Amino acid sequence: MTSHRILALVRDVWPEIRAALNTPWETPKAISHAIFAQLRASRLWEEMKFDVAVAGSPDQHILCLQGDGQLMLCSPGISLTSHPFVSELVDELEVDFEEHSLSVAGDCLIAPLTEALKARLALPSVLLVSLFHPEMYPAARLTLGIAYLASYLRLRHLATVKLIDCQFDATVDDVLAEIRESRPDFLGVSVNFGQFDLMEQLLDKLYTEKAAGEPPVVILGNILPAMCYREILEAYPEVVICRKEGELSLAGLVRAGRDRSRWSQVPGIYYLSKQEKLVSTPPTYLPMEQLPTPALDTVPELFARDGVMTAEFSRGCQYNKCSFCPRSHKGGVWRSIPVTSMLQQWETFMQVFRHFGRTPHIFLADEDFVGVEDGDATVRRLTDFLDGARERGLQITFDASCRADQIFREGRDRDWHLQRGRLFNRCVEGGLSRLFLGVESGASAQLERYKKGSTVDEMISAIRYLSLLGARLRFGFIFFDPLMSVQDLVDNIEFLGRTDIVLPAARNASVEEIWDIVCSNHGQVMHEASGRPIYEDVSYMVSPLEVLSKSKYLYDLRQQAPQLISNQIDVSFARYRTDYAIPELGNICMACQYWVNYCFPIVYALKGLQKVSSDAEKQLLHEAISGHRYLGYMLIRSLAQAFALVDDKTVQHWEQAHASMEGHQEICANARKLVGDGQIDKAIISILMWYEEQMRRLMETVNEHASTLSPSKQQHWHSAYNGWATSSLVNTQALRMA
User: Fold this and answer.
1) Is the dihedral of CA 263, 264, 270, 273 positive or negative?
2) What is the rounded (10 degree) CA torsion for 324, 329, 330, 331?
3) Is residue 103's pLDDT more than 80?
4) β 160-165/125-130 pair status
5) CA distances from 420 to 372, 405, 417, 670 (A)
């Protein structure tokens, strides 16, 4: 095969090849098969021996044809000379390409196939696996961890990559079957909280199955291996653990191969040397301009299950000081991809939404989408993105997260607050559907322990400002911590019930007028306000603080009250079990955790369905979620009353703000008597039994109206509901507390 023959062949069917390369939701293997079929169908086809491969990320696919001493690279719509893979070949192997043009916008490069180039094109194989417990997270979403790793390796043409996302019904045995069949050189496994058992199952079988031959090199990533690397390496000395971000670590390991003597040059990993000594290599952070669009191989199955699309525009946290959040695996520097990359990803996502006929909505996984304080540049970055999306007709709505001090700070002047108000107003106009704020607490002392960097009054003014601007909000909340006081408990209940914080949007008011309302009421109760109670927008209201490995809170607790903390780490969640300084609060926390565990599967299913619903469907699901949150708010009130932690005046105040359900006062009075008699377990069980019944009635209502949902959503709902309905909060927990 000479270059002119294959070039003529490609030119003959280039429109069809170009169309195949412009399918970001297809795997490289599927695209290469489609292109080969087009080449065979050409009138210029002859019996030629050449390899067809597809490199690049979803928005930069490259056709690689190799054979008869030639390498041809073709791509639609981009300049190949600036592509990372091509740049490497030119800079490191000194490949001398001839440039050729293709009809209908295409770029083509041809070079002799030297021995060095052949060796570079002989790619290792990588299998990337994301583990999954369906009972913990039943709603499907694009799993970004393995998607970004795959895209980065493909962009630089470092490996052939296959993905197994276990949320799509794949089991550990399915992963093992794929390993036996395809014999990958490398196995990358993403292990999230609660998946330690699945990791053990996979590795135990992998390293004991002799018939499978030499196992692949295993690299474990995500938060759990990074935090529990010592425990994992002690049990599985063969594995490599990624310390921080995975792209450069995995790429370095792929280049190094099985030779452990070269692993010391791989950035950001833990492993055991041949002498069984722990080796920790320095991490290198990926320049964000090099972060590609995530691989979208799983999108067809994702949408078939009414899943949601996720993306990431930035990494890290600009604040980086919250005591409950371990930062060692994430890094302490906030970085963002360029605006041009943001817009390129938005265009790719819109192409995918249009192809599958889906409502265009993205859930941004950024910890803080506003980012580092950099004066006008902070505002310009987001406004340039929003303006660019509007100019290109990319009408995609999105959810995002930020900190309260991105919109309100006591130390900032009026001009700063007006600038931020205009920014968030522009975000709402440009598609911001919902904004997550990590409020965490309504108790001043607790916020100080959490080292949030904002006071309760600042949190309140931030929420008022955003809600008046029209932003829909949801909040993170950490109700309990081991050092909390009774006053913290009361303050949190009071805060969650307030209706003068989340205010109706001031549609006809200017940003200046809205700011004047917020400023004039800062630190004050707005008695005449009629907003939503905070608890209606809290994702998980009565959850405790997890004392995680490597967190500042763990250090503080060991300094202040070492008797409260276990010395043994729970490797399933990289956390330490704790007692509470006030035992009654520990009992209340325990009861609330039982409630959270019981409700989580069905509520997570509701929330997942709501994300992809509209109109009557969304209304049904929203009412169920709101009902659950009201029950959670009332539960914590009931427990506070049962343990006699509040006086009658406080209870009356709560009742005036949010009336309890029929039978509530009786169950509280009975539980309080049981506590007084020293029968704490029975008191807790009696309250939980009552709330379990309320929750069952609420979910039965959804089930009775499930016909409102689309057929696919009905199937998802019935699967989740039937599994949950067979569970029992009370029977299981009664046995534990007996």
Assistant:
1) positive
2) 100
3) no
4) parallel
5) 13, 10, 5, 51
Distances (CA, A) of 609 to 123, 300, 603, 604: 40, 17, 10, 9
Token pair in block for residue 320:
């980086």
Q: Has residue 736 got a pLDDT over 60?
A: no
- Residues 308-317 pLDDT 10s: 999 999 999 8
Compute the half-sphere exposure of residue 240: CA atoms within 13 Å on the CB side of its CA. 29
Mind listing the pLDDT tens digit for each residue in 153-192? 999 999 999 999 999 999 999 999 999 999 999 999 999 9
Tokens of 282: 């320095």
Residue 562 structure tokens: 């070492």
pLDDT score, position 353? 97
Amino acid at 356: F
Q: What is the DSSP letter of 628?
A: H
Predicted pLDDT of residue 210: 59
What is the maximum span of the chain, computed from C-alpha positions, in angstroms? 93
Q: Average model confidence (pLDDT) for the chain?
A: 93
Nearest to 317 by CA among 363, 247, 369, 378: 369
Domains in the chain with CATH codes:
3-118 (3.40.1720), 125-280 (3.40.50.2300), 548-581 (no CATH), 582-738 (no CATH)
The residue among 251, 196, 203 whose CA lies nearest residue 223 is 196
> Picking from 65-69, 409-413, 623-627, 666-670, which range would have the lowest pLDDT averaged per residue?
65-69
Q: Is the dihedral of CA 657, 434, 455, 557 positive or negative?
A: positive
| DSSP 8-state assignment for residue 202 | H
Calpha distance 211→217 (Å, rounded): 17
CA distance 713 to 616: 13
Note whether 7 and 108 are within 8 A (CB).
Answer: yes
pLDDT of residue 199 exceeding 70, the answer is: yes
Q: How far apart (Å, rounded) are the C-alpha atoms in residues 367 and 382?
A: 15
| Strand, coil or helix: 525 | coil
Q: Are 142 and 307 in contact (CB under 8 A)?
A: yes
How confident is residue 731, by pLDDT bands cut at 50, 70 and 90? Answer: low
Place of tokens 């002119």: 4
Q: 6-42 burial, b for 16+ CB within 10 Å, e for fewer?
A: bbebbbbbbebbbebbbbbbbbbeebbebbeebbeee
Residue 190 to residue 148: CA distance in whole angstroms: 12
